[in-house]
Amino acid sequence: MKSYLTVNEILGRKHFVCSEVIAGKKGLNNMVKWVHIMEVTNVNKLLNGNELILSTGVGWKENKEVFISFLHQLIECRAVGLCIEIGIYTSEIPPEVVNIANEHDFPIIIFHEEVPFVEITQDIHSMLINQHYQMISDLENYSQQLNKLLLTINHPQEILTFFHKYTNLQVALRLNEVTTLIPHASPTKEKEILHLLNQIDTNGEQTSIGLQRVQVLNQDYAELYLLCHERYLTELELLALDRTATALAQHFLRDLYVEERRRIAETEWMTKWLTGELSHEKLMHYLEESIHPTAIDGGVVAVCKWSSDSEQPSFDLTYFKLFIRNLFEQEGFHLFTIEKHNYIVLLLLNKRSYKTWKKRITDGISRLMDTDYQKKRNFPIQLIGIGSYYQDLRDIGKSYEKAIDTIKIQEKIESSTTIHFYDDLHMFRVISLVQQHKDLRDVVMEYLEPVINYDKKYNAKLMETLKTYLACQGSKQETAKKLFIVRQTLYHRIEKLEKLLGSDFMQPEKRMAIEFMLMTYEYLFTVNSTSKLSYKL
Fold first, then answer.
1. Percent of the chain with pLDDT over 90
2. pTM for the complete prediction?
3. Is 379 helix (H, G, I), strand (E, B) or coil?
4. Domain CATH number, residue 68
5. Which runs of E-coded beta strand occur in 190-315?
């Protein structure tokens, strides 16, 4: 896959017979992308890198300081060498220039006789153009063979081996925090390579290490590396790296899709699991076919509901489940899914520490909401309810029931978030249970009706003030700050509240009752579905 010329190879051309390398011999293997004739001395904006410069020295003549400045500019612009014609304008190369060139491995080549610069550029440019056409042909050939290989392989290592044979360079794949090297290296060499991968510079400049992220469902699924210790990677090698990463993505997606189709058949026994109709023996049997139950430390159920007035998603739901499966597996969960009429049940079995399960679920859902994938898909999520965590998998049905209860409670309260954990709803759970046995509306109005009616008549915002005042534990300073009002305005509102609720409304028992009635009022009366957030997937 050689797609470049080196300075050393150019020295073998006919016009360089009378040339001599006087400095920077260690840089003779530098890649040459183009040849420029340059007689000006201010070149910072004229070069793109990897150019071989031809000059007569007319720009600096015998001015050593200008010559040194010119040389530093070439090095900073990543030129690969300087060819100087000794004669009319330049009779000798100052020792200081030679020292600087040797220090930076920058070749300086002198012509002892007059040479036709135009013929040199024509000769080298013809070679470079021919190599470019050959590079396109080689890349097309590589891509075709890679596509054929995708039809027969069963493991990504076969793609890595094929890539290594084409480039003859070190290949590495990092997947799920495990790095595979092709060819395999000794422990010492492997440690050195892993250190290089961790130090890789991805600022876009030339490098001897190439990195291409393997994206599946618009998520970084793995990382593919190509390493060359002797030189910078060529354009062809970087293009082949990109093609190989695409092939790996197709392979991973195919495997994930086949796996998802297989799991559709699991819906029946998982439904029985949730409803408690599955015996412990059969549950363990089914789990052993899918995972290693001994690696599971409990689980939790989440219910993901989309808007009931929205149309059925226009994309394959299997594709969506692949996406969230990959996302939650990165957070340490094994995911089972069941489709219902307008929601999906997520059975999340924990493979890591119990102490971090809630944070990892929150992180996973946050990543789901923030990805480009969900923004581009017509899939509006309305609510996500998460049940309680159970370490005994036989109790997973209880988690499902609580996740459903969480959805029902969410539908009755005005909330700034789409996601709720059952364990965090506290008083709303109590209100929900009481509401099933007694109508609370009359009790609520006994406490709050005077304030409600006063607000309706005068738009005095007493309900908002009461709620904030109680939340601030009776701190007037903090309440005024949160309401963005002056203290005098707050004092006036509190006086009104004392007249409407009684001067003892901040006494412990009455205060507790009023707080309960405020939450009940929010639960029963403040139902504003249009205020709920809607995320589109």
1. 14
2. 0.45
3. coil
4. 3.40.1390.20
5. 209-216, 219-227, 299-306
